[in-house]
Design brief:
heterodimer; A: alpha+beta; Histidine-containing Protein, Chain: A; 4 strands; globular; B: Glucose Oxidase, domain 1; TIM Barrel; 3 domains; 8-stranded parallel beta sheet; 16 strands; 47% helix
């Protein structure tokens, strides 16, 4: 299992559309993908779970991937968050 | 943390159990329990509805993809994306499965319950934008519900299950624990379904003492609190709650001490009931030898059994409208009604049954699809006999069915909400017409006594007119109070003004009883007042000898009758009626 901390930097945070993108991406990997904020950890493949983290801009979250292609999954998800979910702000 | 929610005390007793929230979705759903054997097919019903909605959204998305950016903004596709993912989300699916499998909720109820559970988590979010994403979830759940509504449920609601014994209660146990239903509001149709189910008590946010929820809870003899404002928002699914039906209080998350105290109260109440049960075969005769008739109000033919069990001397009010409710516009035909009335008549084993013609409208809409928001004051609108006279063919169907049922035992027919002489004559003409139709068809029918309800002040003020046409009168005190005092029975904000002891109300009741007795015609009260033990002595003193109430109240009223001396109560009752403050005069 690998884990990395990252700060949400897009203006709207993990809102519905960003959550959808994240969930879809996580779902495309065979490994388990978790996202945690503080002591709350949710399955990153569940949009409901991700939305309910309520991670706004500036929130630090922890990504965990575990299983086949865990490194690829981690890289892809970090890239998505760093890219501000493709929203440009 | 323990806290209490106050409402109106409407049905006595104590219930202790876990809260079940009947979520009030914008779509009205049925709530009932399914058989354990139906769990899989119930889950399949949600799944196929969900899959159908997914397909629908996918098709929509394809259409959007073909449009130019100007016609369909990119956002639309993204929103559809979110909705599709929500539909397929594990958290929703697992939750729904849980409510169906572990609680035996029907599919719609399971969906709305899970929606409520997730919605609460959204509500707690600090970020207003995210908080509002709840709307997306609500939309997809509503889509599923709407789809399911279009597809008729194959499940016959609700299988009867014996109520769990309160004594077996143990904290922390989720199996066989009594359940208490907490809802914003319950429709009469909902209540009817719950009637045969497991709930040990009811709490609703809205409603007054004579709202339908209250009446049905009383008839089931289970504790209920209505008008508890925001109870359904304060309580969470599965919270431990105590309902104190005598005080009108719901206690949420009670401490061990409070729990013990209410456990004691509950056992004391059970003992009192056992004591009353011994009066069942005792004739209702006052100390001075006046015979009093205690009748039952019933809603379905099957209720005849509980009426007989409670020692009722007959049925004083069979609310036929319950046969008409929740049927999506398909009203029962003559045969179905005839068989229902006949079952009630036969169920009473030779005791008289008074069937009231359909009384819909106001707080009893036929079903929610017909609720008409254009008419803000349905209590003053097209209801009861007005509704019947507006559709003579429908009304004659009912009249024929009642006339035919009268072959099988003593039947009285009662007409609700008459106010005008023209209405009386029109109604009686339709009864004659119905008889002629049966004659022509060569179908046997009986000759029931015809009576009228006195529930509009105009009727109580024109008694000679009514007595010229009718064999007996029955005072519907709930509506009589509502119309005399201009109080909406269903509106909890004016519930404190709803006063059975208002001098005007007492005057109308006293005059009706007196005038009927003077003319030797039968008179009864079939409203809530008849079953209220604090009113029994007063009504006896005013000369009332026929009371019709929920079967559950008969024994308690009988106890009052047995202790009363009617002759000595008469002068006192007159003083109460003439007093400026009757409630104070009653205490003298």
């Amino acid at each position: 299992m690998i884990q990395t901390n990252i700060t949400i930097s897009n203006r709207l945070g993990l809102h519905a559309r960003a959550s959808a993108k994240l969930t879809k991406l996580a779902g495309s990997f065979p490994c388990d993908v978790w996202i945690a904020r503080g002591d709350r950890k949710v399955n990153a493949k569940s949009i409901m779970g991700v939305m309910m983290l309520a991670a706004g801009i500036g929130t630090e979250v922890r990504i965990e991937t575990d299983g086949a292609s865990e490194q690829a999954a981690m890289d892809a998800i970090l890239a998505l968050i760093q890219d501000k979910f493709g929203e440009g702000e | 943390m323990t806290f209490a929610v106050h409402g109106l005390a409407v049905a006595r007793g104590i219930a202790i159990g876990r809260a079940v929230l009947a979520a009030s979705s914008r779509i009205d759903v049925a709530h009932y329990f399914v058989d354990a054997g139906r769990v899989m097919s119930e889950i399949a019903r949600v799944r196929s509805a969900r899959d159908a909605v997914i397909e629908e959204l996918l098709r929509l998305q394809q259409t959007v993809a073909l449009m130019s950016a100007k016609e369909a903004p990119q956002e639309l596709s993204a929103i559809l994306d979110v909705h599709l993912m929500l539909l397929q989300d594990k958290e929703l699916e697992e939750g729904v499965k849980h409510w169906i499998t572990d609680r035996l909720y029907n599919a719609e109820w399971a969906l709305t319950t899970q929606l409520e559970v997730i919605s609460r988590q959204f509500d707690e979010m600090e970020d207003p934008y995210l908080r509002e994403r709840k709307a997306d979830l609500e939309q997809v759940v509503e889509r599923i519900l709407r789809y399911m509504k279009g597809v008729a449920s194959p499940v016959a609601p609700p299988p009867a299950r014996p109520a769990p014994r309160q004594q077996d209660l143990q904290l922390g146990d989720t199996e066989d624990v009594p359940l208490v239903l907490v809802a914003h509001d319950l429709s009469p149709a909902d209540m009817l379904q719950f009637k045969q189910s497991v709930f040990a008590g009811f709490v609703t946010d809205v409603g007054g003492k004579t709202s339908h929820t209250a009446i049905v809870a009383r008839s089931m003899d289970i504790p209920a609190v209505v008008g508890a404002r925001s109870a359904s928002q304060l309580v969470r699914q599965d919270d431990w709650v105590i309902i104190d039906g005598d005080a009108g209080v719901m206690i949420v998350d009670p401490s061990a001490i409070i729990l013990a105290e209410y456990g004691f109260k509950q056992r004391r109440g059970d003992l009192e009931r056992e004591r009353l049960a011994r009066l069942r075969h005792t004739p209702a005769i006052t100390l001075d030898g006046e015979r009093v008739e205690l009748l039952a109000n019933i809603e379905m033919p099957e209720d005849a059994e509980s009426a007989v069990k409670a020692g009722a001397a007959g049925v004083g009010l069979f609310r036929s409208e319950f046969l008409f409710m929740g049927r999506q516009g398909h009203l029962p035909d003559e045969e179905e009604q005839y068989h229902a009335y006949r079952r009630a008549v036969e169920g009473m084993q030779g005791l008289p049954v008074t069937i009231r013609t359909v009384d819909v409208g106001a707080d009893k809409p036929l079903d929610d699809t017909r609720r008409d928001n254009a008419h803000l004051n349905p209590a003053l609108g097209l209801r009861a006999i007005r509704w019947s006279l507006a559709d003579p063919a429908m009304f004659r169907t009912q009249l024929r069915a009642i006339l035919r049922a009268a072959v099988h035992g003593p039947v009285h027919m009662m007409i609700p909400m008459l106010a005008h002489g023209s209405e009386i004559r029109h109604t009686l003409a339709l009864i004659d017409h119905a008889r002629a139709e049966l004659d022509n068809a060569g179908i046997a029918y009986g000759n029931p006594q015809i009576g009228a309800m006195i529930e509009i002040p105009a009727a109580a003020l024109t008694l000679p007119l009514f007595l010229r046409y009718f064999d007996f009168l029955s005072i519907g005190t709930n509506d009589l109070i509502q119309y005399t005092l201009a109080i909406d029975r269903a509106d909890e904000s004016v519930a404190h003004l709803y006063d059975p002891l208002h001098p005007a109300v007492l005057r109308l009741v006293a005059d009706t009883i007196m005038e009927c007795r003077r003319q030797g015609k039968g008179v009864s009260i079939c409203g809530e007042m008849a079953g209220d033990t604090s009113m029994t002595r007063l009504l006896l003193g005013l000369g009332l000898r026929t009371f019709s109430m929920h079967p559950a109240q008969i024994l308690a009223v009988k106890q009052e009758v047995l202790r009363a001396d009617a002759a000595r109560l008469a002068p006192w009752a007159q003083r109460v009626v003439q007093a400026e403050d009757p409630a104070a005069a009653m205490a003298d």
